[in-house]
Amino acid sequence: MENADKAQLLNRFLGSALGTFVGDALGEPVEGWPHRTIYSRFGLVDTMIREEGHYTDDTQMMIGILETLQQADGFDPAVCARRFQENFESWRGYGRRIFGVMERIGQEIPWDQVGTDSYGNGGAMRIAPIGCFYYRNLQALKENAILSARITHNHPEGLAGAVAQASAVGLALQHGLSREPIKPESFLDEIVAQVRDVDQGFAECVDEIRTIPGGPMVEVIEVITGRYGLSLRAIESVPPALAAFLLTYSFREAVVLAVNLGGDTDTIGAMAGAVAGAYYGYDQIPQEWLTPLENGPKGRDYVVNCVKQIVSSLSNPV
Predict the structure, then answer these.
(1) Using CA atoms, how far apart are residues 122 and 99, in angstroms rounded to an integer?
(2) DSSP assignment string, 129-172
(3) Which residues, 6 or more positions from 102, have their beta carbon under 8 angstroms from its beta carbon?
(4) Residue 106 belongs to what H/E stretch?
(5) DSSP assignment of 251-297, as one string?
(6) Sign (positive/negative) of CA torsion 31, 286, 59, 240?
(7) Which CATH fold would you assign to the domain 3-312?
């Protein structure tokens, strides 16, 4: 892999990983708020509300996937399950069912026997590194997205959310590297094709994105919030995150739209940031969002170093 190619891949991989982190931290203070409450209090949230941008379970689990790719030179669900359990900090906002999953992993129960029938968005929120690592092979991307999600989620909707989000990241990265503009219709066609055999209903919800009209951000927010529940359920949060990317024209706009939808704002922001970062690149993430990100032992710089080591180890694109 040529150095110039690696530099471009690094820019997009970093963009997706730090895009997850930024969207998570930007949305965390207003998680659970309806969009009109957010607007009445802040207008459009476009700056870090807290002095330090804290990450939640979204980014912490993404870090576990990064560590797995770094350690295993590819995705290994057994390694990843251990990473999830070792990194687990309960105060990061984990869903109730995850506590039992972490306990079972700690008991050394096999990774494919610890998950639940959850249809939540946990498999999708953390998936950005899978999309970046397997971006050239959508079948391998799909297979590994499912493996990653199955550690915690076995419901078809939960698996479909992970596949849709990973596919969006991979496709966005492809277009970012080639500098080809994304055509929303064909972009959605490819995601729907990836998801259809996992969960038909989920594929239909993704397909509905094409019917959302563009326009001023406040008007687009009203339309999206009228279509989707914006809850922890994957089918109600992944499509809005994809719409936030497809209906905007910069990294900043995508994340601002996503966070201001309300509901599960940290996760929707993280997912929109992951896709937008893969397309626009790390250098398009506003510095005023990057600087406040928490930077402890597994903070901003740690994420950057993980991505750099993964990309540097690649002799050829996967």
Answers:
(1) 13
(2) HHHHHTTT-HHHHHHHHHHHHHTTB-SHHHHHHHHHHHHHHHHH
(3) 84, 85, 88
(4) helix 96-106
(5) HHHHHHHHHTTBSSHHHHHHHHHHHHHHHH-GGGS-HHHHTTB--ST
(6) positive
(7) ADP-ribosylglycohydrolase fold (1.10.4080)
How far is 166 from 79, CA to CA, in rounded Å?
19
Say how far apart CA 159 and CA 150 lie, in whole Å: 7
pLDDT in single tens digits along all 318 residues of the chain? 566 689 999 999 999 999 999 999 999 999 999 999 999 999 999 999 998 999 999 999 999 999 999 998 899 999 999 999 999 999 999 999 999 999 999 999 999 999 999 999 999 999 999 999 999 999 999 999 999 999 999 999 999 999 999 999 999 999 999 999 999 999 999 999 999 999 999 999 999 999 999 999 999 999 999 999 999 999 999 999 999 999 999 999 999 999 999 999 999 999 999 999 999 999 999 999 999 999 999 999 999 999 999 999 886 544
Q: How open is the CA angle 108-93-128, to the nearest 5 degrees?
A: 75
Q: Among 60, 58, 45, 57, which residue's Cα sits nearest to residue 270?
A: 58
Cα torsion for 185, 190, 193, 194, to the nearest 10°? -140
